[in-house]
Design goal:
The protein is built from eight helices and eleven strands. By secondary structure, the chain is of the alpha/beta class. It has one domain: 3-Layer(aba) Sandwich (Carbamate kinase), CATH 3.40.1160.10. The strands form two sheets. Strands 4-3-5-2-1-6-10-11-9 form a nine-stranded mixed beta sheet, sandwiched between helices. Strands 7-8 form a two-stranded antiparallel sheet. α1 (29-44) packs across α3 and α5 runs parallel beside α7. It is globular, with a radius of gyration of 17 Å. The mean pLDDT is 94.
Amino acid sequence: MDSQPKYQRVLLKLSGESLMGSGPFGIEPDIVLRIAQEIKDIHTLGVEAGVVIGGGNIFRGLAASEQGFDRVSADHMGMLATVINALALQDALEKTEVNTRVLSAIEMRQVAEPYIRRRAVRHLEKGRVVIFAAGTGNPYFSTDTAAALRAMEIRANVIMKATRVDGVYDADPEQVPNATKLPEISYLDAIQQRLGVMDTTALSLCMDNQLPIIVFNIKQQGNIKRVILGEKIGSIVH
């Protein structure tokens, strides 16, 4: 394994659920600190890291709209949940002495900087970890789509999609015990087979701009660094 990073600028996509730990919802400080430490490990290698974080551990816009909330209101509530998670991650990263900035697509100057592309790139160039909060700032777009969009805007080399399973499978491995892992898959297959890697909008964006997505297990410690160093873990969509 190489000790040189394979990727110079990455976009890490974290689900809100990854901050939950063993609880049914909310944020577990120990888990957030562990993820922060892993981000610090790649930051120390000189990798420029942007992070997009979901809000599913606090509020799910799509699920709430199915229960009778207005979809636009529900999505806005979901976006605000991602800001809470972004602040939690920022706090944990700064505890590990990594300079971090939260840039929010919904303006809230007291807690985060407004998202401006050039400013985000400048922070990355100065060696700060940038956390993109509030999704795209628009309803009907998931945080997966936000991750694809931000990755494009900052010209990231790869999207690292952190999940609860160790790659892409032909069926949900949490429900189908003998599901087959797919180490490599094309964008088109991932879209047509509805494999749940990311939603269709996000996958289409990545396909149109030839941006690879690496899907890996966040629960296993050290995996973020392994991906950065080019170890063959998880699955790659390209």
